[in-house]
Amino acid sequence: MHSALLSGMIEACEKAGDFQLEHFRSVTADSVSDKGLNQLVSFVDVESEKMLVVSLKKLRPDAGFITEENTAPNDSESHAVWIIDPLDGTTNFLHGLQVFSISIALMENSIVTAGVVYAPAMKEMFCAEKNRGAYLNNNAIRISDTSCLRESLIATGFPYYEFQQTRAYLDLLGELMKSTHGLRRLGSAAIDLAYTACGRFDGFYETGLNAWDVAAGALLVAEAGGVVSDFHQIQNHLFGKQIVAANPVVYEELQPLTLSYLG
Fold first, then answer.
1. Dihedrals phi, psi of 216, to nearest 5 degrees
2. Angle between helices 4-23 and 43-59 in degrees, nearest 10
3. At 158, is the secondary structure helix, strand, or coil?
4. Measuring CA to CA, which residue among 154, 151, 56, 36 is closest to residue 102?
5. Do residue 118 and residue 196 come from a single domain?
6. Of 53, 125, 188, 233, whose CB has the highest number of CB atoms within 10 Å?
7. Residue 193 — φ and ψ, nearest 5°?
8. Which residues pair with 153 in a beta bridge?
9. Domain containing residue 186
10. DSSP line for 15-35
11. Pairing mode of beta strands 80-88, 64-67
């Protein structure tokens, strides 16, 4: 049974998800802007975030916000903060691919205590509360039981505007091509983490991400029995722009590789 807070977060995501599906495959180029190199934003991102902010304010009027589209004043110093990515996978959304998600998390005293990742087009609602487990559509989920990196399926994302580590990223991809069952790049870090939490992926790593990309998904992985950190095994994955998450066995092999190539 979910808490009233988590139920409210789920309802907020469902409402925003319905709005996104109304506009899926119908957004035109003239309603899309570019925040920077390969950083697209549409009116769907902005309006979805506004809807989420209104709903979440009602749930916790005392909480501040960290939002991707800046529709609310960012307030990382508050004792309670909503961390919102209204549309993770905007490029997929704009190209008609179903792999996009809404990611919201509540951080209290620097600890993420609740998180939801919702994939509207696939009707998959992932949610978790600290010390209460992780769920997909109300069914408890666990990380995979894959026993070594060699037998794993790993997810990652490619740098799309910070290219200083491109060579190192390609070198690590080459190493993992030889030492895993394969790699996948879906285009939504929140979904990558959710899929790691439910065992579809055995691990995930990426650089250049923001708190709104990973806050909810990282909680899902931890509550499903996985390990999450930055490449240095420090709990700085929210704001340190690097993350590795996996089942405990795969993590022991994957984390040193991320540090060696990208740390």
1. -70, -45
2. 160
3. coil
4. 56
5. no
6. 188
7. -70, -40
8. 182
9. 149-262
10. HHHHHHHHHTTT--GGGEEEE
11. parallel
Residues in CB range of 248: below 8 A, 6 or more apart: 225, 226, 227
Residue 204 to residue 251: CA distance in whole angstroms: 9
Give phi and psi for 110, each to the nearest 5: 70, 10
Looking at residue 175, which CATH number applies to its domain? Answer: 3.40.190.80
| pLDDT for the residue numbered 252 | 98
Distance in angstroms (rounded) separating the CA atoms of residues 43 and 30: 10
Tell me the pLDDT band of 147, cut-offs 50, 70 and 90: very high
Q: Is 45:86 a contact under the CB 8 Å cutoff?
A: yes
pLDDT at 40 over 80: no
Both tokens assigned to 169: 């990223």
pLDDT at res. 93: 93
Check: CB of residue 218 under 8 Å from CB of residue 229. no
Q: Are 43 and 114 in a shared domain?
A: yes
Position 165 scores a pLDDT of 82
Dist. CA 226–CA 252, nearest whole Å:
11
| 196: nearest Cα among 129, 136, 137 | 136
Q: pLDDT tens across 172-220, in order?
A: 999 999 999 999 999 999 999 999 999 999 999 999 999 999 999 999 9
Mean pLDDT of 133-154: 98
Token code pair at residue 231: 């490449």
Rounded to two decimals, what is the model's pTM? 0.95
- The identity of residue 237, as a single letter, is H
pLDDT in tens, 71-109: 998 887 789 999 999 999 999 999 999 999 999 999 999
Q: Are residues 154 and 228 in the same domain?
A: yes
- Residue keyed to tokens 């961390």: 83
Q: Which residues contact 28 (CB under 8 A, 6 or more apart)?
A: none
